[in-house]
Amino acid sequence: MIEKCLFPAAGYGTRFLPATKSMPKEMLPIVDKPLIQYGVEEALEAGLHHIGLVTGRGKRALEDHFDISYELEDQISGTAKEAALEGIRRLIRECTFSYTRQIEMKGLGHAILTGRPLIGDVPFAVVLADDLCLNPEGPGVLAQMVELYRQFRCSIVAVQDVPLAETASYGIVEGEVIREDIVRVTRMVEKPKPEDAPSTLAIIGRYVLTPDIFDLIEGTPAGRNGEIQITDALNEQARRGCVMAYRFKGRRFDCGAVAGYVEATNHVYQQGLGRVA
Ligand code: G1P
Fold first, then answer.
1. Per-residue pLDDT tens over the stretch 105-121
2. Which partner from 34, 65, 143, 270 sits 20 to 30 angstroms from 236, CA to CA?
3. Is the pTM of this model over 0.85?
């Protein structure tokens, strides 16, 4: 029912300079696998096999990652090293990959709108690959959200409680609890100061969006930081009662910052979740 997943991946990754000077931050590995591959695996597990990437200048490594490297294949063919490529080969086999470039960095809402030609007029998911979500005990976060979409047929944002001091790093939701893990959102605020935050329930980088979001983004003026915010466009849907916030099962690591990245690396290594245990 939902088959498409959009990955906004045009950002500069300034928190990881100089590592990200000529390399996309989405290619940073957690143990032995780049962040973007974790994201696409999560999408495929949820049944989303049409993958759209909104890239930018200096992001070609992303396209090369989801393509065959003939020289490499030739070199390791017939050796034990082939096993290391099993996962990525499967993604290349089972997914389609489409790309478009965001020419100017004008915010997450703008990035999603840039991906409109890759999506069309159907509901779709959005993954911010620097939020690594793991749920080894059960279905991944996107799979959980797709299941909820089946029930509610409206936009869904994944949320988690954050310390009050950190609200200024997130979109924060307000709403009415309709199930222990679901809030019907009435209002959302992009990166409020703690004193202005309506709650401590923060949106993380997983969304299911209904396609009317595109027209809403088009009508959304620049907001926080002078950027076009997806949170502001979602606010319109929330006013109509069409946004659910979902407390997902699993663990999320903020790999867009060094501390979260190191924590994720240690976790994946220690739990043996990476290929190299
Ligand atoms: C974006 C969104 C924000 C959301 C966050 C999740 O912010 O604008 O609402 O909470 O992603 O990671 P960014 O982290 O790109 O500044």
1. 999 999 999 999 999 99
2. 143
3. yes
